[in-house]
Amino acid sequence: MKGWQFTDTNVPLKLVEKPDPVAKPGYVVIEVKAAGLCHSDVAALEDPGWIGIITAHPLYMGHENAGVIIEVGEGVEGFKVGDRVGIAPISERLTAANGGRPWAIGYQTDGGFADKLLVPDDCLVPLPDDVSFVEGAAATDAGMTSYHALYVVGGAKP
Fold first, then answer.
1. What is the pTM of this model?
2. Environment class of residue 117 by beta-carbon count within 10 Å: exposed (0-12), middle (13-18) or buried (19+)?
């Protein structure tokens, strides 16, 4: 697969080729149809103060993604090849396994600035046919930003 690889702050992304991902237990492989460029991606590219959010590099950036499932790993339930999905950037399962430190696509593992993407099944969100891949990719992060602002920072109650 081809993708845009991040190596360090103030270094341009480079188009590189890696082997295609293979679905392992609890994961699916997505053919990426849309990937958003977030302010945090730009910040990590330009400001050394942001490099700490990307704990594994070089890697393909991109945490705002949507696409079509092309391979399903053992144990994945509720999703099948051909399903349209948005991809929540943070895996709660892998965050818990990481001692509570956030585990996010495009920061701790390859992201969606590539042809294909290996995704933990707890990050999958069904994408209705009337929602475009571009809208789905944008919504995966924008919704989290709003939720965090209202409920975590602002203290709003449901």
1. 0.87
2. buried
